[in-house]
Amino acid sequence: MQLGFLGGAREVGRSSLLVDTGKEKFILDCGIEVQHGKRPVNLPRNPDGVFITHAHLDHSGFSPAFYSMGYKGKTFATAATFDMAHMLLEDSLKVQLKKRQDPGFSQQDINRMGKKEGILGFREPAEFGSSTVELFSAGHIPGAAAVLVESRKKSILYTGDISFTPTDFMFGADIDRRSPDVIVSEATYSYKDHPDRRKVKERLTSIINQTCSNGGVTLLPAFAVGRTQELLLMLKDINFPIYLDGMGIRATTHTLSYPETFLNQRKLSYAFEKCIKVKRGSARGEIVKEPCVIITTAGMLQGGPAGFYISRIMERRECTLVFTGYQVEGTPGRHLLETGVYENEGVSARPKFSMHFLDLSSHSGRSGLIDFYRRMNPQKIMLVHGDRTEEFAEELKGMGFDAHSPAVGENITV
Ligand SMILES: [Zn+2]
Questions:
Q1: Which of 74, 98, 241, 253 is the most exposed place for a label (fewest CB within 10 A)?
Q2: Ligand 1 centroid distance, CA of 56 (Å)
Q3: 3-state secondary structure of 11
Q4: How large is the average pLDDT for residues 122-139?
């Protein structure tokens, strides 16, 4: 069996893995690197199946391109993933056209993909020629799956993005199939464990209370899918107005229609009803005049209404910006966090508001990954989706694992 690392190796973004069993070719994920629209390399034109682990664009963002290359087959994912990916893909297409990037697919291709949906549930193995493919719940965001491909000779488990620790919003990953030949594992946080979520929630609440009591605005840039819903749940008892702006509004409506994919559905419905949805761009200027919390896209500041809010609170020391998600290298969010300078869409400035990074990750931390490898007992581990995968592979070798950190474009026979 051959594995082709087409993207998202020694980097975060444009995740894509080719599994070639000798009889069938499967594509697991086909994402883009969101900041510059970078794509996976060496995509085959006519695979025997395309699988999407979850809706985030770094895993789904280039998948409609198969239909522009003449692919006639289906794309497979859970129902929740399809629904949310469809929404994110349409938005991403518009954003790329606006930036004068070539997206590599059209609205028609998104529609074609919509007509070729192969909806899979968790633990419902499906046969593809001589192979079987099965999805397992990955605990990352609603609908997120890990994919097990079994051919006659080998089995590969690809984690997608994975989290093992249950939160108020998500179940932990649920994978019981032991001893695959190979695990292709995300390793976003191979170098650290996450702090206790309850403590992070306390810290966030106290930052908000302090900021708002001083007359300031707390700005929470957030991924539309996953993080926005968790923040709404977490902040449902805050005594200051909570505004929800950008794609997170639609994403929450979509999420609520898949109640089996997350926890505390009633509380999320309540929190969503209670928050104030920003429906008109013209309302934004008024919102920042009063103490409040604003949850808005984009999570890494590379678009959405976040830029507008930043420009309005730039000079106000009493305001606060809190990042709660991973900031990919090269994004305005990462740059601001590392240098204190906001550089985006022609603006370059050093904001006066205070800034925090709170770790509310929906990716497994280091210990969770290592425990997982011990439990699963694979022959080989291939590390992807991380900035420090080479280091981690060396560390894992020291622990007795056969680990490797492939590069983009590398093909490995297993
Ligand atoms: Zn993700």
A1: 98
A2: 5
A3: coil
A4: 96
Q: By C-alpha distance, which of 29, 81, 86, 85 is closest to 258?
A: 81
**What's the helix, strand, coil split of the chain in %, to 5?**
30, 25, 45
Ligand 1 center to 54 CA (angstroms): 7
Spatial separation of the C-alpha atoms in residues 202 and 305, rounded to whole Å: 27
Instruction: Write b or e for each residue in 94-107: b if 16 or more Cβ atoms lie within 10 A of its Cβ, otherwise e.
Output: ebbeeeeeebbbee
Q: For ligand 1, a single-atom ion, which residues have Cβ within 5 Å? A: 56, 161
CB neighbours (10 Å) of residue 185?
28
CA count, 13 A, side-chain hemisphere, 339: 14
pLDDT category, 326, cuts 50, 70, 90? confident
- Helix or strand (DSSP H, E) at 209: helix 197-213
**pLDDT higher than 90, residue 202:** yes
Task: Give the tens place of pLDDT for each residue, 145-188.
Answer: 999 999 999 999 999 999 999 999 999 999 988 899 999 999 99
**CATH of span 197-357:** 3.40.50.10890
Q: Give 258 Cα–ligand 1 centroid separation in angstroms.
A: 18
Residue 379 to residue 19: CA distance in whole angstroms = 17
CATH class of 2-192+362-413: alpha beta
Kindly calculate the radius of gyration of the chain based on its CA atoms and give it in whole angstroms: 21
Q: Report the pLDDT value the prediction gives residue 22, as an integer from 0 to 100.
A: 95
Q: What is the pLDDT of residue 176?
A: 87
The Å distance, Cα 161 to ligand 1 centre, comes to 5
Distance CA 320, CA 51 (A): 40
Do the strands 242-245 and 342-344 form a parallel or antiparallel pair, or are they unpaired? unpaired
According to the model, what pLDDT value does residue 178 have? 84
Question: Domain map of the chain by residue range?
Answer: 2-192+362-413, 197-357
Residue 99 has pLDDT above 90, yes or no: no
The CA distance from 45 to 99, in Å, is 27
